[in-house]
Amino acid sequence: MSRPRFLLFGDSITEQGFRNGGWAAALAETYSRKADVLVRGYGGYNTRWALFLLDELFPPNSSMQITAATIFFGANDAALSGRTSERQYVPIEEFRSNLEKIVHQMKVSFPGVLIVLITPPPIDEDGRLEFARSQNKPIELPERTNENTGIYAKEVIYLAKELHLPYIDLWSKMQETEGWQKKFLRDGLHPTQEGNAVLHEEVVRVFSEANLRADEMPLDFPHHSKIDGNAPEKAFHIVI
Amino acid sequence: MSRPRFLLFGDSITEQGFRNGGWAAALAETYSRKADVLVRGYGGYNTRWALFLLDELFPPNSSMQITAATIFFGANDAALSGRTSERQYVPIEEFRSNLEKIVHQMKVSFPGVLIVLITPPPIDEDGRLEFARSQNKPIELPERTNENTGIYAKEVIYLAKELHLPYIDLWSKMQETEGWQKKFLRDGLHPTQEGNAVLHEEVVRVFSEANLRADEMPLDFPHHSKIDGNAPEKAFHIVI
What we know:
Number of domains of chain A: 1
GO molecular function, one term (chains A, B): hydrolase activity, acting on ester bonds
Number of helices of chain A: 10
CATH architecture of chain A: 3-Layer(aba) Sandwich
Oligomer: homodimer
InterPro entries (chains A, B): GDSL (IPR001087), Iah1-like (IPR045136), SGNH_hydro_sf (IPR036514)
Radius of gyration of chain A: 20 Å
Structural class of chain A: alpha/beta
Largest sheet of chain A: 5 strands, parallel
Organism (chains A, B): Dioscorea cayennensis subsp. rotundata
Distance between the termini of chain A: 24 Å
Keywords (chains A, B): Hydrolase
Helix content of chain A: 25-40%
Order of helices and strands of chain A: EHHEHHEHEHHEHHH
Shape of chain A: globular
Family (chains A, B): Belongs to the 'GDSL' lipolytic enzyme family.
């Protein structure tokens, strides 16, 4: 049963990774017959709350080995103090410290794991206002701003550089494309199928740069075309 | 990290389960934060070749527990002798015996596992001919017929009844819908997104009947709305 395992740890964008067109499903397809993709996503969670999960999710003496992991928080931590999602807000210094703790625990629990940090996506503030109206909970000011989320994104990058971890600057990457607001985000925050495709592509790129190239990883068993119908055991190196 | 694990064992229709709109991804989404879905699908494999995988995939003393598994072969075994996919053909008696061996090894390796047998889907013979033409490998007679695959489907059901295992009669289920040939099959054999949806729905139904109802299974951790922003530890039953 054993093959490399990829673990995706994060908030709702991770939790929803197996939805139609989702980035976790796409990753599982890219690494089909080569790696398993495990999703540990917790909608609405910030890094402060995520800390309560670590001992259970990543016990120090885990028998389960993880080859690569993504840590993808910040979208909730960056909710603005004094606005409607204030309870999710985490100050920037604490955000950084919490992320460091998550990285540390993963390293202890999964020796040799490749850890990739992902910044939160950009925020389409109009999209947030529209979404609130569509929920019959109109708000005057968005509960998150793109500028403030950008500060959290930068902090992810600072930390990644300091810890020599690969990272995905999703906040900047998405904004490179004109019309990113509606093209990549369905409610100003969560990715559309096209947004999921950007995320998938970035994860595959970073994994590949770290020597986890799908096309260089072996299939778990022979491709069926390699099996001789009259002597199938040969393909499995079985002497009969 | 531990939560119930669902294992999907089969041929290409299982291997492709994480493709866009695929049944494995849909199952992972249905059981989000409740169970992991592991795909062990091998395109082109028949049950004869699948036997060579058992000791490695399902070692008798596995430390990995599996809560539920699907066994989904037959589409290749039912290739016709004397036609273009002859090398995949497995006689019906051997097909049954091979399936029994797979069931047996799973039961030994994963005590208490819920095993669900899935019949092959129906065959749209015109779709197979069209597909061969589209690959510039035209054939005069389809390499699989719906009637013959139906015999293999029936055998799956006989075995399931004899072993008191739940089963999904995908062969019959798909044919209940008018236009199933193009609606549910993209090349006369592999399911379209709508065909994948039928499969997903059937698996969820059978799992639910066996007391694996997603809505009755606990979330792995509290929903974020249950977390008190001022005292988050309470939601995690942690005394500080």
